[in-house]
Each structure stands twice: as structure tokens, then as C-alpha cells.
Amino acid sequence: MNNVRVKIIRLWKQYSTASGETIEMVFVDSRDDKIHGTVKKDEVGQFVHVLQQGQTKVLINVIVISRFRLNLTDY
Questions:
Q1: φ, ψ for residue 43, nearest 5 deg
Q2: In this structure, what are the phi and psi dihedrals at residue 55, rounded to the nearest 5 degrees?
Q3: What residues does the Replication protein A 70 kDa DNA-binding subunit B/D first OB fold domain cover (predicted)?
Q4: Residue 6 half-sphere exposure, CB side, CA atoms within 13 Å?
Q5: What is the pLDDT of residues 39-66, one digit of tens each?
């Protein structure tokens, strides 16, 4: 079982015609790694009232999908 303790540092609702309404989040874990998470449209109603920006949560049975995007722009 994969459990991860995270803090929600950014949370917003998003709508697209392809995937409907979703909840998008950016988490930070104990190693200061940033993680993007999504609540899919079928589960938005279940989670919309229990997720708030700034909260710390323990995610249970996490499914990790690795996708990396490189940003080669100098800042």
C-alpha cells in the first residue's frame, strides 16, 4: 500500500470538453518534491468539500503515473 503525506499548495477546478470538470492540485511532500494530482470528473462531487488549499492530507493507495516535461527556458 502506497501512503504519502502531502500539503496542498495549489488547488483549482478545471473544465474541458474532453474530460469534463476536474479538480487539479499541486502537492508538496516531506522531501519538498512537487507533485501534480487530479480528481477525475466522476469523483469531483465526493472530494470537492474535503480538499482545501493549505491542508495537509495523507493519500492512501496512490497511483503514480510518471510523466516528465522538460522546460529548457532560461529564467
A1: -115, 0
A2: -75, 155
A3: 4-66
A4: 22
A5: 999 999 999 999 999 999 998 887 777 7
